[in-house]
Amino acid sequence: MQNTQHTTHTADGPDAALTGRRVTAVVGGDRLDLVLDGPVTVQVTQEFRFTGATGVAVFFPALTLRPTRPLLGLVGRTVGSARVTPAGGLELVFTGEGGGTLSVPPHALLAPWRVVTPDGTLCAGLPGGVVDRSGEPDATGAVRPPGRPRSW
Questions:
Q1: What is the pLDDT of residue 135?
Q2: Looking at residue 34, what is its pLDDT?
Q3: Range list of β-strands (E), the chain
Q4: How far is CA 72 from CA 12, 22, 54, in A?
Q5: φ, ψ at 127 (rounded to 5°)
Q6: What is the rounded CA–CA span in Å between residue 151 and residue 45?
Q7: DSSP SS3 for 9
Q8: Does residue 71 register a pLDDT over 70?
Q9: pLDDT in tens, 95-137
Q10: What sign results for the dihedral spanned by CA atoms 56, 60, 44, 69?
Q11: Helix (H) or strand (E) holding 17
């Protein structure tokens, strides 16, 4: 399936919603929750990679995730940039001591990531690299009703 809805750094993409937000908590279990101030939460349910000062680590939340020291070290760091890749993955780059990049690739059959607020889903990676943007602000700044992918 071809991804026809992709974003890099645009005013109405995840970059605007996530950049500059500080990580307040990292929670494991059957998914990774990166809780940001705002409140905004990045939820990752499928394989992801974290590249930091100690190298690259690959995680599989579906097998139960216990946050490692590098992931826990994200608490207090700020999202320097966020983007949806052309294939439908999500990439977060963190600022602060040690920095780090969290990369969530798209998945052919499952929804690997989503960005949620108390009002609902802001945007989400869906199966096949499709990205649901129904909860993102439009060009005027108005927020459309949040989308809720069926797989969540």
A1: 73
A2: 96
A3: 23-27, 32-36, 40-44, 48-52, 55-59, 78-84, 90-95, 101-104, 113-117, 120-125, 131-132
A4: 29, 13, 13
A5: -55, 145
A6: 11
A7: coil
A8: yes
A9: 988 889 999 999 999 999 999 998 888 899 999 999 998 776 5
A10: negative
A11: helix 14-18
